[in-house]
Design goal:
Layout (H helix, E strand, L loop, with lengths): L4 H14 L9 E3 L2 E2 L11 H19 L19 E7 L4 E8 L5 E4 L28 E2 L5 H6 L15 E5 L5 E18 L2 E18 L11 E4 L7 H7 L6 E6 L6 E5 L1 E4 L3 E4 L8 E2 L1 E6 L2 E2 L15 E3 L6 E3 L1 H11 L8 E4 L2 E5 L4 H4 L3 E5 L3 E5 L1 H4 E3 L4 E4 L1 E3 L11 E3 L7 E6 L4 E6 L5 E5 L6 E5 L6 H23 L1
Parallel strand pairs: 4-10, 5-9, 18-27, 19-26
Antiparallel strand pairs: 1-8, 1-12, 2-3, 3-4, 3-8, 5-10, 6-8, 7-8, 8-9, 11-12, 11-28, 13-30, 14-29, 15-18, 16-17, 16-22, 19-27, 20-21, 21-25, 22-23, 24-25, 28-29, 30-31
Helix pairs in contact: 1-8
Length: about 500
């Protein structure tokens, strides 16, 4: 080799080494995308968009209450809100998968190559991928005799032919959709926070579901994704596995940008902004909180005490995976009465099963704030521009819905979705069993503390997926290799 090539090769090797994953730290960041694209009001395809959103909330509520009957359905949803997904890498070599970020479920699962009912195309403009265990050099199967199989089975020994049999899973949702498959262990690739607005690729071994068959609306290609990434509390969740491996704290936060799309989704202790918290209700499978009162424009609603029960099929659940807010009928009627108290002569219209009306001017100036009060003196203010969504010129529709529209067994629950948490930083501290929030600009940044080093780093908002970085690294690697070959040839 000519001596003149040595400096060039050293530079190239240094560049290649910069692409290698850095040392693991105790924070992680997920760059999120909006599942349903934001659009303004009516227009071509508007009704189809609304129907898809409303149907999603029906499916979502069915998943959250997986033991109940089918959702009762409906046809419309706000045009101003959406759901979110991220992109992760799985396997060796890493392949990208789009998964819904879901705070209402626990497991991570992706569709498997053996699945003949899984969609091959998505109406979301993303490329779907089927996970192939045989194509990964780091894959291993999970047997019925392993601890994870017992944990994922709710702590009960699974029904298997033998301890060496593959550990299967089957999830049936309340809307009739389902996923069935088997558990595998493989390498998960994700972005670790490594500096201010900087990340480095990191990886760890994780156990997840390989979906061999899906049914119902999960097989629809209209809004198809590769799977679901659950951020629930159980030991089988991805977050718990990362925490048990010493990779992260069991704390995460999201700030979903309903104005620009995307937002912030990070694992780690948020040190800025500081948020006030309320205790989680113990012994519940979801993020249940203790609701104490509701007021509309400062007028406290007189509601039955049973509304504030925290028992099964009652109580209040916080879930960013739901777009609207669903309330018991008595609460729904009381809120509507107060919201429209000064508009006794207003003419209402039924638009895709929504209560809609004509109004010119600022809804924030013409309608009251709805405030939910929780244990620990924590309040949630829902602004008029959040619970009243615009659907065409001067046409507004109500985003608070009756719970009976979703499931008959969920009619007595308060389910607070995206419209209640628009542009708020929401902190889930599972270690201390609290949840909190505060108004925030979700297009800005937050500060996360790395518990291992004590460093505090800035995490910015994004509207691209984490998988883009995998593709970018792969493309840059190929470019550098081609450049190296060019240098050697000439």
């Amino acid at each position: 080799m000519e001596p003149s090539l040595i400096p060039k090769l050293l530079l190239l090797l240094l560049a290649l080494s910069a692409l290698a994953p850095g040392r693991a730290v105790a924070t992680g960041v997920f760059q999120v995308r909006r599942k349903f694209p934001r659009h303004q009001g009516a227009g071509p395809g508007g009704d189809k968009h609304l129907a898809a959103l409303r149907e999603h909330d029906g499916r979502r509520h069915g998943r959250l209450l997986s033991a109940v009957d089918l959702p009762l359905g409906g046809n419309g949803l706000p045009t101003e809100t959406g759901l979110y997904f991220t992109e992760i890498g799985i396997g060796t070599p890493a392949k990208s998968f789009y998964v819904q970020v879901d705070t209402g479920s626990d497991l991570l699962w992706v569709n498997c190559v053996s699945c003949d009912t899984c969609p091959r195309k998505s109406g979301l403009g993303i490329e779907l991928t089927l996970y192939d265990p045989a194509g990964s050099g780091s894959h291993s199967g999970v047997t019925c005799g392993e601890d994870f199989c017992v944990i994922a089975n709710g702590g009960l020994p699974p029904t298997c032919p033998s301890a060496s049999s593959p550990c299967g899973y089957s999830i049936a949702y309340g809307d009739g959709s389902s996923t069935t498959g088997f558990f595998v262990t493989d390498t998960l690739h994700y972005n670790q926070v490594s500096g201010n607005a900087q990340t480095a690729l990191a990886n760890t071994s994780i156990t997840f579901g390989c979906g061999a068959k899906i049914g119902g609306d999960l097989g629809s290609s209209n809004q198809a994704l590769d799977g679901i990434l659950g951020f629930g509390q159980t030991n089988s969740s991805m977050l718990s596995q990362l925490a048990n491996a010493g990779k992260v704290s069991k704390v995460f936060a999201h700030c979903l940008d309903t104005v620009n799309g995307g937002g912030i989704f990070a694992i780690g202790n948020v040190v800025q902004p500081k948020v006030k918290t309320t205790p989680l209700v113990s012994g519940m499978p979801h993020y249940n909180v203790n609701l104490k009162a509701i007021d509309v424009g400062g007028a406290m609603l007189q509601l039955p005490k049973s509304i504030f029960d925290t028992r099964e099929s009652k109580g209040t659940i916080i879930d960013s995976g739901t777009t609207l807010a669903y309330l018991p009928e008595v609460v729904h009627k009381a809120i509507l009465s107060e919201v429209f108290a000064q508009y006794v002569d207003m003419s209402f219209h039924d638009v895709e099963d929504f209560l809609c009306f004509r109004y010119s001017g600022s809804v924030d100036n013409g309608f009251p704030v709805v405030t939910f009060h929780f244990e620990g003196d924590l309040s949630l203010n829902v602004q008029p521009h959040d619970y009243l969504f615009q659907n065409g010129n001067d046409l507004y529709c109500m985003g608070f819905q009756s719970g009976g529209l979703q499931t008959k067994d969920g009619k007595d629950m308060v389910l607070l979705g995206d419209i209640a948490f628009s542009n708020k930083l929401v902190l889930y501290d599972i270690e201390n069993q609290v949840i909190g929030w505060d108004n925030y600009n979700c297009s800005s940044s937050i500060k996360i503390k790395d518990d291992k080093t004590g460093s505090v780093y800035t995490v910015d908002a994004h509207d691209i997926s984490a998988g883009w970085r995998f593709q970018w690294h792969k493309s840059l690697f190929s470019l550098l290799v081609m450049t190296l070959l060019t240098y050697l040839m000439f």
